[in-house]
Design goal:
Mean pLDDT: 96
Structural class: alpha+beta
Helix content: 25-40%
Strand content: 25-35%
Distance between the termini: 27 Å
Low-confidence stretches: none
Bound molecules: uridine-diphosphate-2(N-acetylglucosaminyl) butyric acid
Number of strands: 20
Length: 333
């Protein structure tokens, strides 16, 4: 069954806590429901599919149909050697999946604990943290074509995953609804402590649950809880600069944090914003979070324009101070 709502507030569907409306809101609970909705619908109205709304900035009311999956499920579909394949419904809460997997002895997701997301969006966005990314565990992604209603499946390779990117955000944008994601997890626990800040605080012989709890502790100390302070996690992506630009920056700021990236050097946008003097500052009802400058927050009753204005001001100042352009990670609708 699908539920339909009209002139519906998206307040509960965007973690920024913006009170924007959509003309129509449809939530389906199975692949068949979605297909019959697509078959019957008036095609003149634009469609936009959301997940948990944790990475969205609605810049105004939406004049079309917002689609949301209600597909659930967590099912082991195969064991191959020391790998286990788990097929998960797109609307499952990501962190519940991490918790269930760790409890069941299916390992790999520990570093991705507490990332606010639904499973479908986790694949679209290739969520990541502490040296791990969803793509490291995604085996395949099942979809429904929003135009033809046909079902299909893409392998990990076909999704073309990269840093906070997949084809679902690129050339396939708006084309598919993700219905199920199959993860390939390990029956052997091998902690991933490649992220420097994590290695520094990890204790010896931590089991998977202890590592998960450590990640939760770090995240809770740095990132605001959207239930109490509206936000969408990292608002910007970390920019990548070429070697000569990096040398120039490092000579002026010897302590600049950085990571190697495939085509240059990645600089934390949070550091750039912090050094530009924005950490903890407000503009209207939007602010830069005091403990992590990469996060923009709704300080109370913010309108979309408040967030947009702050985002532009921050980008302009980073450009002026460092000559680096930073771009939102958050999806603007
Ligand atoms: N930093 C500052 N000031 C700040 C924030 C950061 O100086 O206000 C410095 C930190 O001291 C550190 C460096 O910047 O040296 C990196 O900070 P952090 O470890 O917090 O990570 P990040 O690069 O800011 C990324 C992800 C986060 C993820 C963390 C941990 C992106 C856009 N963000 O943040 O992802 O949790 O690494 O892996 O890649 C998200 O995507 O929503 C998200 C929270």
């Amino acid at each position: 069954m699908s539920t339909h709502r009209y002139d519906y507030s998206l307040l509960a569907h965007n973690s920024f806590g913006l009170d924007v409306k959509t003309k129509e809101f449809v939530e389906y609970s199975s692949v068949d429901d979605l297909r019959s909705f697509l078959c019957d619908r008036d095609c003149d109205r634009p469609l936009f599919h959301i997940g948990g709304g944790n990475n969205l900035l609605f810049t105004k009311d939406y004049e079309g149909v917002i689609l949301h999956s209600g597909i659930k499920g967590f099912e082991v579909t195969g064991i191959e050697g020391r790998s286990v394949l788990v097929r998960i419904g797109a609307s499952e809460i990501w962190d519940n999946v991490v918790e269930k997997s760790v409890e069941a002895g299916y390992y790999g997701l520990e570093n991705l604990s507490l990332i606010p997301s639904e499973v479908g969006a986790a694949a679209v966005q290739n969520i990541g943290a502490y040296g791990a990314e969803a793509k490291d565990f995604i085996d395949s992604v099942e979809v429904v074509d929003l135009e033809s209603g046909e079902c299909g499946s893409f392998s990990n390779k076909e999704c073309n995953f990269a840093y906070r990117f997949s084809n679902f955000k690129g050339s396939w944008r708006g084309k598919y609804a993700v219905t199920y994601v199959t993860l390939r997890l390990s029956l052997d626990y091998k902690p991933n402590l490649t992220y420097r800040a994590l290695a520094q605080v990890a204790e010896e012989n931590m089991d998977a649950l202890a590592l998960r709890n450590k990640i939760i502790e770090i995240r809770e100390s740095k990132l605001p809880d959207p239930k109490t302070l509206g936000n969408a996690g990292s608002f910007f992506m970390n920019p990548i600069v070429d070697a000569s630009k990096f040398k120039e920056l490092q000579s002026e700021y010897p302590d600049i944090p950085h990571y190697d990236a495939p085509n240059g050097v990645k600089i934390p946008a949070g550091w750039l914003i912090d050094k530009s003097g924005w950490r903890g500052r407000k503009l209207g009802n939007a602010g830069v979070y005091e403990k992590q400058a990469l996060v923009l927050v709704n300080v109370g009753n913010a309108k979309p324009e408040d967030i947009v204005r702050l985002s532009n001001a921050v980008c302009d100042d980073v450009k002026k101070k460092f000559g680096i352009e930073i771009f939102p990670e958050v999806n603007w609708v």
